[in-house]
């Protein structure tokens, strides 16, 4: 069976969930071979093997931390040359998309970004994407070179499947280009204790209807009762009520959680562009004619300040 490379997103050896989802998709189209680079790369092996990686190629070098993405691109390119895979899967993070695009150019291959599903096809993997602000779902495949595909978080389940996961050192040497842009400092974001917005299984978002920064406590309380991330519409962000890093939509982040709860959000096309691929959508809005109700699975017409606290209380009570 053809091997499929999966580029591993990890922090000091702790594998992030979107990579495990990629392993599930990789098993549908071939045998997953994981590529982990940077500090702690070797520590990823047991988790990757536990999710179906037949081999784990690892490389560590100071260049991975000291420079921007090109060293990672060159490591992945070395893996492509060593393995001759039938496809390369990369998580759809900002960094992942840059790595995938640069790799595709270097190996002369076609690229598909932000896939929400992947299946085996007669002429290679077929990726599902959501296009034009999620008005269309497209299916496409790469017709030139080794398909490089980035996949959005929450596009596949995490499936524990034990495989050999044999660790092999990946030989990498860096070109001059790889060390062109040096990282001078890193400032970790202050932790809220909530999951990362693009990776969260549940997202609770607030919009202009929240009517003030202090009122976002109502949204945060619901999010915390569900272990969810908090999102915001651009109107709420532009008003200075919530940070831009939490904006969902065309000019914000694109999320695809199992459950998306929109409170006081009208459902403008630019907001929908960032959340319409969510599996289940719930909206709370006092205007029964709000366009958000056209795309919801469950809608509540009501004042969010009456509905959301009751919902939070009910969830907390049921959790015991
Ligand atoms: P509104 O449209 O004002 O809707 C507020 C809603 O809250 C209304 O439906 C109202 O009925 C309801 N409401 C009010 N009070 C309550 C209450 N007490 N209880 C319940 N419901 C209540 N927008 C984004 O979100 N993300 C983007 O990335 C983005 N990118 C953009 C890019 C471009 C180029 C442009 C032009 C626009 C972009 N926008 C984006 C803006 C977008 O067009 C809308 O203006 C924005 O999404 C509206 O935000 P909203 O739904 O919170 O506010």
TrEMBL record:
Binds 1 FAD per dimer. One of its GO terms (molecular function) is flavin adenine dinucleotide binding. FAD binds at residues 208, 233-234, 247-251, 264-271, 285. The keyword Nucleus does not apply. One of its GO terms (biological process) is fatty acid beta-oxidation using acyl-CoA dehydrogenase. Pfam families: ETF, ETF_alpha. CDD domains: ETF_alpha. It comes from the Bacteria. Residues 4-183 form the Electron transfer flavoprotein alpha/beta-subunit N-terminal domain. Keywords: Electron transport, FAD, Flavoprotein, Transport. The electron transfer flavoprotein serves as a specific electron acceptor for other dehydrogenases. It transfers the electrons to the main respiratory chain via ETF-ubiquinone oxidoreductase (ETF dehydrogenase). Belongs to the ETF alpha-subunit/FixB family. Heterodimer of an alpha and a beta subunit. This is Electron transfer flavoprotein subunit alpha/FixB family protein. It comes from Streptomyces genisteinicus.
């Amino acid at each position: 069976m053809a091997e499929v490379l999966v580029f591993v997103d990890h922090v000091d050896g702790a594998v992030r969930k979107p990579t495990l989802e990629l392993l599930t998709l990789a098993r549908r189209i071939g045998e997953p071979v994981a590529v982990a680079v940077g500090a702690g790369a070797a520590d990823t092996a047991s988790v990757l093997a536990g999710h179906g990686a037949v081999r784990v190629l690892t490389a560590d070098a100071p260049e991975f931390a000291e420079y921007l993405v090109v060293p990672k691109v060159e490591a992945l390119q070395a893996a492509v040359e060593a393995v001759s895979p039938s496809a390369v899967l990369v998580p759809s993070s900002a960094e992942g998309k840059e790595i995938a695009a640069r790799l595709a150019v270097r190996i002369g291959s076609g690229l598909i970004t932000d896939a929400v599903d992947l299946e085996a096809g007669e002429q290679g993997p077929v990726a599902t994407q959501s296009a034009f602000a999620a008005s269309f779902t497209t299916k496409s495949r790469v017709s030139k070179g080794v398909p490089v595909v980035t996949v959005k978080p929450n596009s596949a389940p995490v499936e524990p499947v034990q495989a050999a996961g044999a660790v092999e050192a990946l030989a990498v040497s860096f070109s001059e280009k790889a060390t062109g842009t040096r990282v001078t400092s890193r400032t970790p974001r202050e932790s809220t204790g909530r999951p990362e917005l693009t990776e969260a299984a549940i997202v609770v978002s607030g919009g202009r209807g929240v009517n003030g920064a202090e009122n976002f406590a109502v949204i945060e309380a619901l999010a915390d009762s569900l272990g969810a991330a908090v999102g915001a519409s651009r109107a709420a962000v532009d008003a200075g009520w919530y940070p831009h890093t939490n904006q969902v939509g065309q000019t914000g982040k694109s999320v695809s959680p199992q459950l998306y709860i929109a409170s006081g959000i009208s459902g403008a096309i630019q907001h929908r562009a960032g959340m319409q691929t969510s599996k289940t959508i719930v909206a709370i809005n006092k205007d029964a004619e709000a366009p958000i109700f056209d795309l919801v699975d469950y809608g509540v017409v009501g004042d969010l300040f009456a509905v959301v606290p009751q919902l939070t209380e009910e969830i907390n009570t049921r959790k015991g």
